[in-house]
Amino acid sequence: MLSKWTQHLKTPEEKAEFNKDIRGSRFILDRLKQILKEMEQDLDRAEINPKTYDLPNWDYRQAHNNGGRQYLNIFKRLVDLDQEDPNERDPVRPTVRPDTIRP
Q1: What is the pTM of this model?
Q2: At how many degrees (to 10) do helices 26-48 and 12-24 cross?
Q3: Rounded to an integer, what distance in angstroms lies between the CA atom of residue 32 and that of residue 26?
Q4: Pair 78, 29: CB distance under 8 Å
C-alpha cells in the first residue's frame, strides 16, 4: 500500500488503525479498480477511432485524453493495495571502496 494513504497521520497507532480500515474495505477498492479499468478502456476505444482525427482541434482532444489517462493511472496505483511504496523499501546502504578511505 502506498504511504500516501497514511501520510496525514501522526502516530504509528493511527497509521496501523487506518491501514486496517483500508484493508477491511478492499472489496470497495477492488470495485473502484474495475471502474477505473472500464474508464481506461473507453479512452482506448475513443483514441483508436479514425474519425477522431476528422474533428477540428483533434490534437487538443488528444492532449485532454492524455491528461485523463495520467490521472487514471495515478488512481489505479492508489487503490492497488498490493502496490509497493518505493519510499517504504529498505534503503540501500552505500558501499565504500577500500581505496577511497583516508587514514
Answers
A1: 0.67
A2: 70
A3: 10
A4: no
